[in-house]
Amino acid sequence: MSDPRLALNFCGLAFASPLVLLSGCVGFGEEYTRVQGFSNRDCGAVCLKGTTGTARLGNRPHRVYETSQGMLNAIGLQNPGVDYVIQQILPTLDFSETRFIANVSGSTLEEYHEVTRKFDDSPIDAIEINISCPNVREGGVAFGNDPAMSARVVAACRNATDKPLITKLSPNQTDIADNARRCLEAGSDAFAVINTLMGMAIDIESRRPHIGNNQGGLSGPAIKPIALLKCHQVYQVTKNHQIPIIGQGGICTAEDALEFLLAGASAIGIGTALFYDPLVLPGINQGILDYCERHHIDHFSQLIGQLQHY
Question: Where are the strands (E) in the chain, listed by range?
Fold first, then answer.
């Protein structure tokens, strides 16, 4: 996909499309390239899998369970560690196809800082700070639900890099706008809104949760109305600062993407939809273009934040 009406300057990075493939849904950027007809060129950026200081095995199985209009996952940040990602995986990625964004996770401020520092000395284009993982028992979600701690994580990462920092915000908190405000003051360049919601599914025959971790992160169409509201709330904080938002949560169609743009998103995160249809990206891109043509709009960015309140 190469249409100037979809091009986006995101924190100084040139995106060919506003579509961003979300962390945890596309491995380390290579998984979907094995699917015939799929191309990373159809998106503006790919967020790599959450990466920690050392390798993690993740949670006990089962770790994924499909629910009505959604999916629960509790992978638990399984990854080979930052050194392996930088030395073995990044050299295999084609940076001429799209932009690649690292996803940094940790259990301590020091780990966040160190992983960010290592990615700073790598070809990676930007860094997403995962302060809101809902299915690990330490760090992660605790940082994301406390605005003061969220800001401290952002500040620690800011001190470790000059690359664009994208803070991934949790919906599992009282005031997401206040959290965004504090992270902005601490040095965040952009936001990803939202991460998954905490949820559970139960097998009534065994009387046990379907997920081995008992709870997991809920994604998919079921969470879209919540994600839209949270995106719009964060936009109220960022709009005067020209801080971009990757809107995400249940986006499966061009109509979904357009709703997020109107709510204030600058880019559109695609995640669970890829599990249903790995070739969904071209249709969403074309749907955005078709809408712009019908409404005589020269560039998709003219739609950002154009929600009209009653």
Answer: 8-10, 13-15, 19-21, 45-51, 64-67, 70-73, 99-104, 126-130, 165-168, 190-193, 197-199, 202-203, 208-209, 216-219, 245-247, 267-270
Residues 48 and 115: their CA atoms lie apart, in Å, by 14
Q: Token pair for residue 296?
A: 């005589």
Domain edges within the chain: 4-56+76-197+220-303
Among candidate residues 25, 43, 47, 133, the one labeled active-site is 133
What's the full length of the chain, in residues? 310
Q: Answer yes or no: 157 catalytic.
A: no
Conformational region of residue 296, where left means phi above 0, alpha means psi within -120 to 50, and beta covers everything else:
left
Q: Does domain 4-56+76-197+220-303 fall into CATH 3.40.50.720?
A: no
The residues with which 165 forms a beta bridge, in sequence order, are 127
The helix/strand/coil state of 11 is coil
Distance (Å, whole) CA 87 – CA 107:
23
Distance CA(252)–CA(56), nearest Å, equals 30
- Judge if pTM exceeds 0.85: yes
Which pLDDT tens digit goes with each residue over 75-111? Answer: 999 999 999 999 999 999 999 999 999 999 999 999 9
